[in-house]
């Protein structure tokens, strides 16, 4: 069992390497088309033309594009993405500082989406063939039509501005000195035993995480419902009924186990999209994560950060997909032969 | 197909969806006739006015004004023009590229299938929002660039789904029969395979229009979408967010507009899927 999973992990990681290579080429080429001169941007305005020319040579900008790419790739493999033009700091460090915040938000949002998706899917299924079915189906369609940034703004306006129940900017209230162990704020505050800070951080995360979770749960609800409907056509459900098992037990122990698999596949794809969706929510809630870094970089045409952050997003998505595939293998006995 | 379409039209929610889409489409098409003001006209003496029905409202501006004193209703109507243009052109463009590649992949298989499949893998490893942002950095802002970015990001949606459908259809006996009768590959694809994949294609286009509207709003919201002088819902939201305390109305209207447009296209897509999917109709789901 473990061997099969490890084999799959190894195979997937091998397959991910060429994908990442192509992604890096794409990122490099798209951004080199820009009509900005990185050399001129990294020098003070008082620099002379000769200074800029010298800097261009120093940065390798006078060489052909493929040579530039190879130099960049060599540095990138060592975790070097150059200095941010806007922040005047190392791009890789900036990404490393902001990534935990985004991961924390994405995981919390995914948990919320999964719980809502499960409950909603079961509810939709329970309402099948009742007069309420059409209403439930329509509501799930309406929910599907509200993207994450619309939820973000609605929740911000309702709970942050009008009711003033929850904080809606940043990760912590001012006045807290955040501990820096792993960068995962919820984990760090627990490890250092600062419960007051833990709950403060949690409160800051509620609105962004719920906004994302709400936006990504309807698709899961609908897939879970339709795969439950499919599973209920199977003979073993009828068998279980004939054995005298209660409907609740059939649903939880027999049907849900099998119906969960397509939902899991969808959840894997959704998690990748959700990870990108954090960007908008971070901007709306001024949440200091990778998304805000990326948007700032995009607005300032800050190439090193766009490249480092863009590549980071891809690495995380590929890792998530690999993990979901392994989980699928663990949960689906049919795939365990070999 | 005609029969299933007429059945679809009898469903209440498809009618609602069609009404929504036609209403927004009409706003977009006749924007200069409907809009009470020029969407870019500023009136600095009347900034952040509430809607006309509120006590401080001014009937000249039915839905109030924004932070520069521009008429919110006019901007909404012209924003519909931006959104609908993007929705129609971008989703047709993505459909064209995606479905051509999907048919090539599914029909011919082999090396073309492998290459396109790997390209889809690369695209799938980018969260769509991130890829479109990176593309916008490379392309620059503007309505045409937004459309191009959406086409370049979303062709994979069509390619992935349609490819597996083409694979199934290709196995059917009538496709083999067509080849035996002496149809060329081109004729087989156009006359035998495309009609079978068309229902799925139409459904996907409707759903893609909803996605395109959201992406355009997102890009305009972060300031990487249409040019600042063009009215767009995402821009209105970004602007209203700055004045949330003074004028929450300004935030509510563009959000409602996006919700209405996306709901319209999603319900329409869902209705099309139900009406055109032969398997679903037979099971009676």
Explain how this protein is built:
The complex is a heterodimer of chains A (338) and B (285). Chain A has 13 helices and no strands. Chain A is mainly α. Chain A has helices at residues 2-32, 38-41, 49-59, 65-77, 91-126, 133-144, 148-162, 185-191, 195-231, 235-242, 247-284, 290-300, 303-331. The model of chain A has no long low-confidence stretch (mean pLDDT 84). Chain A starts with a helix and ends in a 7-residue tail after the last helix. Chain B has 285 residues and is mostly helical. Chain B is built from twelve helices and no strands. Chain B has helices spanning 2-9, 12-29, 31-34, 72-108, 110-124, 128-139, 143-170, 173-181, 185-221, 233-242, 249-276, 278-283. In chain B, α4 (72-108) packs antiparallel against α5 (110-124) and α5 crosses α7 (143-170). Chain B is elongated. The model of chain B is unreliable at 280-285 (pLDDT under 50). The interface between A and B is large, with 49 and 40 residues.
The helix/strand series of chain B, from N terminus to C terminus, equals HHHHHHHHHHHH
Estimated helix fraction of chain B: over 70%
Largest sheet of chain B: none
Oligomer: heterodimer
Question: How many strands, which pairing sense, and closed or not: the largest β-sheet of chain A?
Answer: none
Mean pLDDT of chain A: 84
Number of helices of chain A: 13
Give the end-to-end Cα distance of chain B, rounded to a whole number of Å: 18 Å
Low-pLDDT parts of chain A are: none
Strand content of chain B: under 5%
Q: Structural class of the secondary elements of chain A?
A: mainly alpha
Distance from N terminus to C terminus of chain A (CA atoms, Å) equals 10 Å
State the helix count of chain B.
Answer: 12
Unreliable spans of chain B: 280-285
Measured as a percent range, the helix fraction of chain A is over 70%
Shape designation of chain A: globular
What order do the helices and strands of chain A follow?
HHHHHHHHHHHHH
């Amino acid at each position: 069992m473990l061997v099969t999973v490890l084999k799959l992990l190894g195979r997937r990681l091998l397959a991910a390497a060429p994908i990442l290579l192509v992604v890096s080429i794409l990122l490099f080429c798209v951004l080199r088309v820009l009509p900005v001169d990185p050399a001129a941007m990294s020098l003070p305005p008082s620099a002379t033309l000769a200074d800029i020319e010298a800097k261009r040579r120093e940065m390798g900008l006078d060489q052909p594009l493929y040579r530039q790419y190879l130099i960049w790739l060599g540095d990138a493999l060592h975790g070097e993405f150059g200095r941010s033009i806007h922040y005047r700091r190392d791009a890789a460090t900036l990404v490393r500082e902001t990534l935990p915040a985004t991961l924390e938000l994405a995981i919390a949002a995914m948990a919320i989406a999964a719980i809502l998706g499960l409950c909603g899917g079961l509810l939709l299924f329970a309402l099948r063939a009742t007069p309420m079915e059409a209403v439930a189906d329509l509501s799930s369609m309406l929910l599907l039509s509200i993207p994450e940034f619309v939820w973000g703004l609605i929740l911000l306006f309702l709970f942050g501005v009008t009711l003033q129940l929850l904080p809606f900017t940043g990760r912590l209230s001012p006045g807290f000195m955040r501990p820096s162990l792993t960068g995962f704020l919820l984990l760090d505050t627990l490890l250092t035993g600062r419960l007051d800070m833990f709950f403060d951080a949690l409160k800051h995360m509620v609105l962004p995480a719920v906004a994302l979770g709400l936006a990504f749960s309807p698709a899961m609800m609908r897939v879970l419902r339709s795969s439950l409907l499919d599973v209920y056509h199977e003979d073993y459900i009828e068998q279980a009924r004939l054995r005298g098992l209660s409907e609740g037990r059939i649903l939880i122990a027999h049907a849900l186990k099998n119906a969960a698999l397509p939902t899991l596949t969808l959840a894997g794809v959704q998690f990748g999209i959700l990870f990108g969706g954090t960007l908008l929510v971070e901007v709306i809630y001024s949440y200091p994560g990778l998304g805000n870094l990326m948007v700032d970089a995009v607005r300032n045409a800050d190439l090193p950060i766009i490249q480092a952050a863009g590549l980071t997003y891809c690495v995380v998505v590929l890792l998530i997909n690999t993990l979901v595939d392994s989980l699928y293998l663990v949960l689906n006995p049919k795939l365990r032969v070999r | 197909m005609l029969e299933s379409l007429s059945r679809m039209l009898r469903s209440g929610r498809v009618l609602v969806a069609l009404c929504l889409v036609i209403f927004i489409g009409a706003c977009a098409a006749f924007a200069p006739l409907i809009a009470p003001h020029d969407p870019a006209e500023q009136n600095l003496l009347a900034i952040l006015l509430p809607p006309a029905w509120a006590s401080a409202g001014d009937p000249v501006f039915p839905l109030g004004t924004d932070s520069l004193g521009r008429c919110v209703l006019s901007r909404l109507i012209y924003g519909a023009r931006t959104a609908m243009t993007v929705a129609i052109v971008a989703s047709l463009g993505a459909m064209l590229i995606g479905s051509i590649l999907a048919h090539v992949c599914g029909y011919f298989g082999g090396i073309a299938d492998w290459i396109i499949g790997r390209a889809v893998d690369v695209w799938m490893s980018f969260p769509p929002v991130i890829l479109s942002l990176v593309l916008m950095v490379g392309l620059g802002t503007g309505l045409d660039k937004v459309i191009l970015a959406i086409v370049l990001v979303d062709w994979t949606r069509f390619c992935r789904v349609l490819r597996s459908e083409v694979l199934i259809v290709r196995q059917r006996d009538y496709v083999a029969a067509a080849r035996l009768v002496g149809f060329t590959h081109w004729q087989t694809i156009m006359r035998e395979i495309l009609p079978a994949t068309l229902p799925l294609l139409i459904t996907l286009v409707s759903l893609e229009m909803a996605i395109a509207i959201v992406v355009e709003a997102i890009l305009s919201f972060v300031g990487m979408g249409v040019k600042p002088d063009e009215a767009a819902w995402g821009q209105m939201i970004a602007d209203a967010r700055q004045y949330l305390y003074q004028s929450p109305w300004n935030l509510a209207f563009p959000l409602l507009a996006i919700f209405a447009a996306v709901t319209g296209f999603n319900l329409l897509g869902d209705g099309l899927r139900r009406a055109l999917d032969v398997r679903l109709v037979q099971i009676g789901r």
